Amino acid sequence: RYMWVTKKGAFCVGPLCLYCIYIYGVAVPSEVPHVLTDLLSTLCHLQVLNPFYIFQVFSIILWMSDRYYYYAACILFISLISISISLYEIRKQSTTLRNMARLVVTVTVQRDTGEEENVSSEELVPGDCLLIPPEGLMLPCDAALLVGECMVNESMLTGESIPVMKTPLPVGEDTYSPDFHRRHTLFCGTQVIQAKGRRQGSRGGLAVVTRTGFFTAKGSLINSILYPQPISFRFYQDALKFLLILGILALAGTIYSIVVLSMSKLLVRALDIVTIVVPPALPAAMTTGTIYAQSRLKKSGVFCISPPRINVCGKVSVFCFDKTGTLTEEGLDVWGIMEGSGSGFAELVPDPRLLPPGPLLSALASCHSVALLEGQLLGDPLELKMIESTGWVRVSSGCPGNSFGNVRVLAVMRPPASELQPAGIVGNPPGEWLQRFPFSSSLQRMSVVTVGLGGSNALVFLKGAPEMVASLCVKDSVPAQFSDTLRHFASEGFRVLALAYKPLNESCVKTIERGTVESSLRFLGLLVMKNQVKPESAGVIGTLKQAHLRTVMVTGDNILTAVNVARTCGMMQSEERVIYVHATPPGNHSQPTLRFHLGESSRAAEQDGLTQVSTCYRCMVRYSYHLAINGKSFSVLCEYFPEYLPKVLMRGTVYARMAPEQKTQLVKELQKLNYRVGMCGDGANDCGALRAADVGVSLSEAEASVASPFTSKTNNISCVPLLIREGRCALVTSFSLFKYMALYSLIQFCSVLILYTVSTNLSDLQFLFFDLVLVTSLAIVMGRGGPSSELHPQRPPASLLSLQVFASLLLHCLLLVLIQVFALLITRTQNWYIPLNTTVSGAGNLPNLEDTSIFAVSGFQYIIMAVVVTKGYPYRKPLYTNVANILLSPHVLSALYALPNSFAP
C-alpha cells in the first residue's frame, strides 16, 4: 500500500509515513480511504494500549470477578469517555494541522522539455522550475530564486509582519544552503506578495524547487508541533519513580494478603491491593493545576499550546530577552545625520532634508529594500522612517531609455519636485535600481546599485553596522574619530548605521557581483536613530531581579547600545561594573586570544571608554560586575576557550551582535549548566531560541508563534512575571495533588489491609464514594487556588524524592494508620459492638461495625489531608480564597456522616 511513495523518491518509515500522507493528502485517490482507516486504527491502538488504560482494564476485570459491579461500571464508563475525548482531541489537532500544512494550488512549472505546464502543487518534486506570477502566490514548497525579485511575507515562519525582499541566488561555487542563502530562498507557506522579472518583458520570477513535504520549512514547523522537544523536568521524572515505589509497597501488601487471607479469595484479594496503589483519579488530578493555570493565562491574553510547560515555568532561573521590539520600541526615530570623510566628522544635522544634494542624501533615499504595492510602501520600519526623513518618493518602474541593454530597472527613487537638480550633479539624479543585495544578519550589511537618467553616474550605496561598513571602506575615507564617535552614540543608547558608496564603470555594472561592488568604498557618514525603551520593561526587570531571577539580553545590535539599554531597563545598576569579553580566533602566525576589558561605571567615561584589567579571569572575582560579549567573541569562546565558557555564562548579562543560530546556541549552553532557561522575543530572529528554551514566550501573534509554547497578545514583557507566578502556582498545586493522591492511596491501602486482617473489606459503594465523590471532587477544587500576587525570591521545590517529602508522607501515614487502628479498637470495646460473621468474607459479611468505623474515620482523614497538603503562601493565594473548596467541604462531610448509617446493623 505504501510502495507508491517510493515513486516520488521518498522512503516509507512506518506509521509516521501514514501520518505524513494524512497531513499532506498526497496519496493517490484510490488509496486515501485505506490510508485514513489505517491511520485511525493506528491512533486507536496507540491510545488504548496506553499503560494506564491497560491497568484500568486489568482492574475492571478484577473488580467484576469480585462482584464490585457499580465501581467497575463507573471506572469503565470514565475510561471510555477519557479515551473518546483523547481520540477526539487527536483528531481535532490532526485536522487543524492538516489544514495548516496541506496547501493544494495549481502552479506553472518547466520540466525537462522546457515547456510550461500547469500542475497541482501535490505533484511538485525537487528540481522542478517554478514560475512565480507577478501577482504572487502562496508557496507550496521551498524553492531557490533564480531570476527576478520577490516581495515575501514570512510572518508564518518568523513572526515578523514586515515583508522581506528576496533576490536571485548569486552565481558561485558555494554549495546551496537554505539557511546560509536565506535571502534567496522562498519558503513553503509564505506569501509572495509581488514578483518582478530581471529582464525587460519577463513576467514574474523563476525558482527551482528544493524541498517538499515535511522537509520544507513549514513541514519542519509542523514536525516541531507533532514531536516537540521532550521536557526533561525533575518533577515528572520523580513522579514515575514514586509510582514505582508505591508499586513495591503494593507488592509488600500483596504478600501480607497472601498470609492473612483464606485460599478461596487469595488471588483476587491479593491483586486488589495492586489496584489500590494507583487510584483512578490520579491522571486527572495531576493535570488539574495546569488546566486551571492555562485557563487563567488565556484570560490574561497569554496562550499556551503545551500545558506541561506551565509547571516548568515555576523553576525558571534565567530569562533571556531580545532587545528591539521586546525591551525597546519597534519603531525608530531619526535623531540626525553626521557626514564624515577622511578629514573628520561634520556637525550633526538633525533633519536629512537639510543635507546638501550629494551621495549621502542619495544613499539615505536609495539604500533600502522597501517595496511599493498598490501605492503603499512596505518594508522595515527603520527604512521607512529613513525614506520619510529624506522626502524622496519611490516610483514603481524605471525609465525605458536606460543604457544597460535589456536589464530591467527594478525601481526609481525621485527627490521632491522642488529639489530636482540637473543630471550632472553626482548622486542627486533620480536613482534607478539595477541590483539590490538585501540585508544579511551574517554579513551585517545591504547594498544597492543605481544609475542616473540616461545610464549616467552608476553608483553603489551600502548601509549596515558601522564596524562592518568601515572595514569595507578605504582607510583614508574613514574619519580618525570614527571609533570614539561611534562609542559615544552607542553608549548613549542610540542606534547607529553607517553609509558608504563608490562609482562603478559600465563594465562592472554589466557583471554585478556582491563581492565586487561591496569593496573599496568611500565612507559617507552615520545615520543616528533613537530607540526608546518600552515603559513596562524597567518595572518587569526590577520585579524579576527582586525574585532572584537572572535577566539576560540577547540582541543583534551594537554592544555599547545594548549595555546602555540594559542599564536603562535595570538589568545593570549605574554603579555596577561592566567587563567586556573580547576573543579572537587564531591567525596564520598567532594563537587565539581571550581578553577582559573593564568599562567605566559612570557616564563620564574615559576617552577610550575601555580600560584593560587583566587577561586572567581570577583577578576579577572580587568585583560586582556584569559581562558583555558580542557574537564573534562568543563563537571563538565556545570553540577555543570552552573552559572559560561556563564562567562567562554565569556572569554574562549582555550578548550583542548575536546571529539567530548563536541565540539558540546560548540557550542550549545555559541549559547545560542546569539552568531552566526562559526566552522572550518578538519572533523575528528568535524562533530557534524560543523552541530551544525551556519556556519560550513569543510576543508575536503570527503563525510562527505555534513553535513557541507561549504566545502573548501584549507587545511587551509584562506577561513574563505573570507566567512565572502561574507556573509556580501550578507546580505547587501539582506537587500538593500528587502528595494528596499518594496519601490517599496509602490511607486506603492501610484501611484495606486492616480490614483484610479482620476478614472483611470496604463495599463497592464505599470504594465508589471515596474514589469519585470524595477524593476526585476535592482534588479538582484544590487546584482552583490562584497564584500569589508577588514573586517570592525562593523557587518552589520540584523533587518528589527528597527526605522532606518522604518524612512528611511517612509521618502522616503512620499517624493516620494509628488513628484507624485506635478507632477499630475503641469500636470493639463498646457495649453495643456486634462481631462480624467470619465464616464469609468480602461483601458477604457487610454491613459490619469494623467496616463502618474504618470507613468513617478514613473519610474524615481524606478531607483533613486535603487541607494539610494544600500549600498557599508564598506561591498561591490563601486557602480561604478558594470558595469552591470551602463550599464543597460541608456537603462532603454531611454525605460522609449519612452514608455509614446505611451499613449499620
TrEMBL record:
<dbReference type="GO" id="GO:0005524">
    <property type="term" value="F:ATP binding"/>
</dbReference>
<feature type="transmembrane region" description="Helical">
    <location>
        <begin position="9"/>
        <end position="27"/>
    </location>
</feature>
<dbReference type="InterPro" id="IPR044492">
    <property type="entry name" value="P_typ_ATPase_HD_dom"/>
</dbReference>
<keyword id="KW-0547">Nucleotide-binding</keyword>
<dbReference type="InterPro" id="IPR023298">
    <property type="entry name" value="ATPase_P-typ_TM_dom_sf"/>
</dbReference>
<dbReference type="InterPro" id="IPR059000">
    <property type="entry name" value="ATPase_P-type_domA"/>
</dbReference>
<dbReference type="GO" id="GO:0016887">
    <property type="term" value="F:ATP hydrolysis activity"/>
</dbReference>
<dbReference type="GO" id="GO:0010821">
    <property type="term" value="P:regulation of mitochondrion organization"/>
</dbReference>
<feature type="transmembrane region" description="Helical">
    <location>
        <begin position="242"/>
        <end position="261"/>
    </location>
</feature>
<dbReference type="InterPro" id="IPR023214">
    <property type="entry name" value="HAD_sf"/>
</dbReference>
<dbReference type="GO" id="GO:0046872">
    <property type="term" value="F:metal ion binding"/>
</dbReference>
<feature type="domain" description="P-type ATPase A">
    <location>
        <begin position="106"/>
        <end position="224"/>
    </location>
</feature>
<dbReference type="GO" id="GO:0006874">
    <property type="term" value="P:intracellular calcium ion homeostasis"/>
</dbReference>
<dbReference type="Pfam" id="PF00122">
    <property type="entry name" value="E1-E2_ATPase"/>
</dbReference>
<dbReference type="GO" id="GO:0016243">
    <property type="term" value="P:regulation of autophagosome size"/>
</dbReference>
<comment type="similarity">
    <text>Belongs to the cation transport ATPase (P-type) (TC 3.A.3) family. Type V subfamily.</text>
</comment>
<keyword id="KW-1133">Transmembrane helix</keyword>
<dbReference type="GO" id="GO:0140358">
    <property type="term" value="F:P-type transmembrane transporter activity"/>
</dbReference>
<dbReference type="InterPro" id="IPR023299">
    <property type="entry name" value="ATPase_P-typ_cyto_dom_N"/>
</dbReference>
<dbReference type="InterPro" id="IPR001757">
    <property type="entry name" value="P_typ_ATPase"/>
</dbReference>
<keyword id="KW-0460">Magnesium</keyword>
<dbReference type="GO" id="GO:0031902">
    <property type="term" value="C:late endosome membrane"/>
</dbReference>
<feature type="transmembrane region" description="Helical">
    <location>
        <begin position="803"/>
        <end position="826"/>
    </location>
</feature>
<keyword id="KW-0067">ATP-binding</keyword>
<keyword id="KW-0472">Membrane</keyword>
<dbReference type="InterPro" id="IPR018303">
    <property type="entry name" value="ATPase_P-typ_P_site"/>
</dbReference>
<dbReference type="GO" id="GO:0015203">
    <property type="term" value="F:polyamine transmembrane transporter activity"/>
</dbReference>
<feature type="transmembrane region" description="Helical">
    <location>
        <begin position="765"/>
        <end position="782"/>
    </location>
</feature>
<dbReference type="InterPro" id="IPR036412">
    <property type="entry name" value="HAD-like_sf"/>
</dbReference>
<feature type="transmembrane region" description="Helical">
    <location>
        <begin position="68"/>
        <end position="90"/>
    </location>
</feature>
<dbReference type="InterPro" id="IPR008250">
    <property type="entry name" value="ATPase_P-typ_transduc_dom_A_sf"/>
</dbReference>
<feature type="transmembrane region" description="Helical">
    <location>
        <begin position="273"/>
        <end position="293"/>
    </location>
</feature>
<feature type="transmembrane region" description="Helical">
    <location>
        <begin position="741"/>
        <end position="759"/>
    </location>
</feature>
<dbReference type="GO" id="GO:0019829">
    <property type="term" value="F:ATPase-coupled monoatomic cation transmembrane transporter activity"/>
</dbReference>
<protein>
    <submittedName>
        <fullName>ATPase cation transporting 13A2</fullName>
    </submittedName>
</protein>
<keyword id="KW-1278">Translocase</keyword>
<dbReference type="Pfam" id="PF13246">
    <property type="entry name" value="Cation_ATPase"/>
</dbReference>
<dbReference type="GO" id="GO:0061909">
    <property type="term" value="P:autophagosome-lysosome fusion"/>
</dbReference>
<keyword id="KW-0479">Metal-binding</keyword>
<keyword id="KW-0812">Transmembrane</keyword>
<dbReference type="InterPro" id="IPR006544">
    <property type="entry name" value="P-type_TPase_V"/>
</dbReference>
